[in-house]
Amino acid sequence: MAEKNEKLFDMFPPISTEEWLAKINVDLKGADFQKKLVWRTNEGFNVQPLYRAEDLEKLTHLGTLPGEFPYVRGTRTNNDWKIRQDISGETPEEINEHARHAIDRGVDSIGVCLCGETDKAKLHTILEGIDLEKIEVNFKCCPGKAVEAGRLIADYIAEKNLKDAFRGSMDFNPFKRLLKHGLKYPKDMVAQAKELLEIFEEIPGMRLFAVDTYMLNNAGAYITQELGYALAWGAQWLTSLTDAGLEAGKVAKRIKFNMGISSNYFMELAKFRAARMLWAEIVKAYQPGAEKCCCSKMVVHAVTSQFNQTIYDAHVNLLRSMTETMSAALAGVDSIETLPFDLQYQKPDEFSERIARNQQIMLREESHLNKVVDPAGGSYYVETLTASIAEVAWKLFNEVVDNGGFLAELEKGMIQKAVDESGVKRHTDVARRKEILLGTNQYPNINEMALDKIKTDGCCKCGCKAEAEDGAVQSLNFDRAASQFEQLRLDTERSSKRPKVFMLTIGNLAMRLARAQFSGNFFGCAGYEIIDNLGFDTVQAGVDAALEKGADIVVLCSSDDEYATLAPEAYKYLDGRAMFVVAGAPACMEDLKAQGIEHFIHVRVNVLDTLVGFNAKLLK
Questions:
Q1: Nearest 5°: phi and psi at 113?
Q2: pLDDT above 50 (res 463)
């Protein structure tokens, strides 16, 4: 048996960072290291292509164990997160049946909406047969009815003798009107919050005050934006209620963070680690000594993103939600809701809900991710990401505080504006394929039709009405990343004629095949019929074949060198009988434009705008 102090792999000499960089520069063959390998994130910092032990030396958040302040490694000494599913139904009986069905199949946390009129009988029916000692229950309701609903819930819990055993949340969110509709928040927010605290004073497991930044995630916010605003939102609760005479520790223990998860796997994992660390420091600032009690522990429920869900090739949503769920699970959140893959076009059915539940069950029961706490701890990459995200989010948090706080910024519409600007930027990146949505703006299933399967707009309706009022400010825009491409393709489906795109492949074999594939992928994003070919010996033969097939667009696919002669010949012979497109951006492009050729598709064009232009001409 090897001695304990024997080093593994001692046959390999240590390699310095300088040696690694020298080897990388050799492999780059003169290419710029910074431009080629350093990734500038949308979150505002650079990511290096490699990290080493010395990168950890400058980090100050290391050195604690899971369950220890400031909780960067987790608030618990286990990783048993709860699997949550939000429950729907037209009647209390349907809600109860739906909830019990989900619980029987592995769910241990449910979300129930109490919007509309709720009385004791309705609440009893909804919760009939549900073991509240084992199942976490999270109630949603309109802010104006929170106190009324709270009394009913507290009475029910007391009646069942579950004051100490109950675990759940109330999701009191008076800021939702400002975020969703740009309308004023209830001015009696503090009074309602104090009343809710009194109602649930003897029920310590009830979280009351929501920080619902999953809304920002669904509007396209970047990771550091969501975290920075989450911290500011939580601090607003502390400020508002401590100013009203309440103890910061008591308030902090009632706050619940409901955060989104994007598909940026490692950065999302790091986000939750950074969130716990920063929140613990914030609570400590409000209440010195908070590190010695549980009040500075952040309770986080994570929800997979709707921003990147798609209608076309919807089963890809399963891949997105799986990586999102996994990053949140490894990050040590308290509960996760994995959204069904079909949410954007219909009310989720039994199959999609089962798959969503099973994604988490598989990670917990088969992959055993609940058996290891903070497995990313010590990773050079993840620890550096944690520090970088924390630094940028903390800067944003302080900016909000310096400008009067979260509520003041909401009332001016500044937070909504900043998030919407990020959403616009991300839509532009999707349009230009800088951000990829598999099956939507890249590698679409060209034969898929979606018009007939759309039965809903994917929005959750709570029944609350928002009336227009004076002084309204900007609200969040919840258009998904795929929405513009989907509209484009649905327009094609609604048209009486589906445009045909013919690949005129000629010349250099490798280039014509590559460009035909690129072009088919390009026009497939609009739902056009793609007619590919092995190749033609002459331009005339290719054009004749295209016209015989009834092509609306003829795409010339060849090499840059050959375009100087082939493109004018094809354009002239086609003579306006179909639209003519050159695949690529050859050096002779300006000369070709001078001869009347106007359409070129290549990696630098805005795919969405280009296809919208073709639709405008072809779908008249």
A1: -95, 125
A2: no
Residue 8 has pLDDT above 80, yes or no: no
The confidence score (pLDDT) of residue 460 equals 45
The residue behind tokens 């350093």 is 38
Q: Any idea what DSSP says for residue 528?
A: -
Q: Which CATH number fits domain 82-421: 3.20.20.240, 2.30.30.240, 3.30.930.30, 3.40.50.2300?
A: 3.20.20.240
How many CB atoms within 10 Å of residue 408?
A: 14
Give 228-254 pLDDT, tens digit per residue: 999 999 999 999 999 999 999 999 999
The tens digit of pLDDT for each residue in 304-347 reads 999 999 999 999 999 999 999 999 999 999 999 999 999 999 99
Please choose, from the candidates 460, 470, 463, the residue with its C-alpha nearest in 3D space to the C-alpha of residue 215. 460
Query: Tokens at residue 567, please?
Result: 């493109």
Query: Does the pLDDT value for residue 468 go beyond 80?
Result: no
Q: Which of 5-14, 38-47, 62-71, 268-277 has the lowest mean pLDDT?
A: 5-14
Evaluate if residue 571 carries a pLDDT over 60: yes
Amino acid at 235: A
Of 381, 367, 483, nearest to 430 by C-alpha is 483
Residues 6 or more apart in contact with residue 514 via CB below 8 angstroms: none
Q: How far apart are CA 564 and CA 582, in angstroms?
A: 11
Cα distance between residue 530 and residue 526, in whole Å: 11
495-618 CATH: 3.40.50.280
Give a three-class secondary structure readout of 157-196: HHHCCCCCCCCEEEEECCCHHHHHHCCCCCCCHHHHHHHH
Query: How many angstroms separate the CA atoms of 593 and 584, rounded?
Result: 13
Q: Is 441 exposed, middle or buried (0-12, 13-18, 19+ CB in 10 A)?
A: buried
Q: Cα–Cα distance between 103 and 135 in angstroms, integer?
A: 8
- Is the whole model's pTM more than 0.85, yes or no? yes
DSSP character string of 277-336: HHHHHHHHHHSTTGGGSGGGPPPEEEEE-STT--STTTTHHHHHHHHHHHHHHHHT-SEE
Q: Which amino acid is at 544?
A: D
- Could you read off the pLDDT of 129-188 as tens digits, one per residue? 999 999 999 999 988 889 999 999 999 999 999 999 999 999 999 999 899 998 877 778
Alpha carbons 468 and 43: distance in angstroms, whole number: 34
| Cβ–Cβ under 8 Å, residues 199 and 247 | no
* Two tokens, residue 88: 């729907």
Q: What's the chain's average pLDDT? A: 94
Closest CA to 70 of 325, 347, 275, 242: 275
> 92-116 burial, b if ≥16 CB within 10 A, otherwise e?
beebbebbbebbeeebbbbbbbbee
- Measure the CA dihedral 561/566/571/577, to 10°: -130
Angle at Cα 287 formed by Cα 282 and Cα 291, nearest 5°? 75
Contacts of 604 (CB under 8 A, 6+ apart): 585
Tell me: pLDDT of 1 over 50.
no
Sequence-distant (≥ 6) Cβ neighbours of residue 171 within 8 angstroms: 138, 139, 140, 141, 210, 212, 256, 258
Closest C-alpha among 448, 582, 430, 606 to residue 519: 582
Map out the domains of the chain as residue ranges.
17-50, 82-421, 495-618
Asked whether the beta carbons of 445 and 489 are under 8 A apart, the reply is no
